[in-house]
Design brief:
By secondary structure, the protein is mainly beta. The chain contains 3 helices and 12 strands. A hairpin with a 4-residue loop joins strand 9 and strand 10.
Length: about 190
């Protein structure tokens, strides 16, 4: 199984920061994301399908906007995931976008076929998700996106965002039960 843009011959490599930054607006692409330890990340995820020892974390801090983007990549037995969390600076808010748009930007070099949509209950609220497949790969995937925090303007836009995707080796579509189980295991810690 091949991880899109981040694994070569089945061996995890550093998270591709430039590709991942395509999923978040309001960031300065000239600032390089820095590797961080798991405890320094706001992203928390534990699931029996994924090995926490193989997880990789990055932080992109943009001093100009005061936005922080945390990335995490998880690899498991015939499964992989990429998660991102955007914590905006005081003058930024999150533009609402579809799951397809957020996840599609993370996987912008891949041809995606979108499937059914749904919602999962989690500690982050009711999280919208959408099933998808990556062309020419025997994987089934689910992507999700959830804005968080207090509404910071009159259009109801939020200050934080978490989004990402999970994929597993399988020629059959991922079940809604599996998708909701994976999404329910994602949480954020409040850190600035």
């Amino acid at each position: 199984m091949r991880l899109p843009s981040v694994v070569v011959r089945g061996v995890p490599v550093a998270i591709a920061g430039a590709v991942l930054l395509g999923g978040c607006e309001g960031l300065n692409p000239e600032v390089e994301p820095q590797p961080i330890e798991a405890g320094q990340s706001v992203i928390r995820f534990e699931h029996e399908k994924f090995d926490p020892e193989r997880a990789e974390y990055l932080l992109h801090h943009d001093p100009r906007s005061a936005n922080d983007v945390y990335f995490a990549q998880f690899v498991g037995n015939a499964a992989f995931a990429t998660l991102a969390a955007l914590k905006t600076g005081p003058s930024h808010v999150i533009e609402e976008r579809s799951v397809d748009s957020r996840v599609g930007r993370l996987l912008r070099d891949e041809e995606l076929t979108w499937g059914e949509s749904g919602r999962a209950e989690s500690g982050m609220g009711i999280v919208p998700y959408r099933m998808f497949r990556i062309a020419d790969q025997a994987v089934s995937c689910v992507g999700f996106s959830q804005s968080l925090g207090e509404s910071s303007d009159d259009r109801g836009r939020k200050s934080d965002l978490v989004f990402g995707y999970f994929c597993q080796s399988d020629t059959r579509p991922m079940s809604a039960e599996t998708a909701t189980d994976l999404i329910s295991k994602v949480s954020l810690v409040n850190r600035r």
